[in-house]
Amino acid sequence: MRLYTKTGDKGQTSVIGGRVDKDDVRVEAYGTVDEANSFVGKARTELNLSNEKLKQLDQELERIQHELFDCGGDLANKKSNRKLKLEEKSILWLEERMDAYIKETPELKRFILPGGSEAAATIHIARTVTRRAERLVVTLKKIEEAPEVCLRYLNRLSDYFFAVSRYINYVNGHSDVEYIRSEEVFRGKTKKKDKR
Which residues form a coiled coil (predicted)? Predict the structure, then answer.
């Protein structure tokens, strides 16, 4: 099988339902979802899988990689009668997992700097790329149809990545580094116990 087709040599690509320019906002949106997926894959290679908690997280992140493929495929479909692969239950699952990680990690009051362990820093990159994908889907929805479930999923996923990056650092013994000029922006929003 050849990986190259030469059909995109003039700056166009195929989506489900036609051909578009490679800088079309739809292509930008699902391409950015793919970028986020790649950073999730990188983070998984950086997890210490001898730790049972991080081994379980690795399985979660694999599930998310599949869901990001679903999301990208749904965004690449221009057909109005499209059947979506990404489902509402994926959003609910993210919320459940996020709540669990928030309970595990120390109380958060201020903005924190991205960083800590290598895997956590990579998850922070995945978080910011996911936010960019979300913004692109918002733009897409202003000019064409785009799946609402993808927008909600990406919104929730970036929050999940924030919780997960803190959890990875917590398990690895890295404390959050607070932004030194931050106010207490999370007062009363994240009531948790330090159970390590």
Answer: 40-67
Instruction: Please give the CATH number for the structural domain made up of 18-104+112-171.
Output: 1.20.1200.10
Helix 148-171 vs helix 52-75: crossing angle, to nearest 10: 160
**pTM value > 0.85:** yes
Residue type, 2: R
Q: What is the pLDDT of residues 69-79, one digit of tens each?
A: 999 999 999 88
Amino acid in the structure at residue 192 = K
The arithmetic mean of pLDDT across residues 133-140, rounded, is: 98
pLDDT tens for residues 77-136?
A: 988 777 899 999 999 999 999 999 999 999 999 999 999 999 999 999 999 999 999 999
CA angle at 42 for the pair 147 and 196, rounded to the nearest 5°: 95
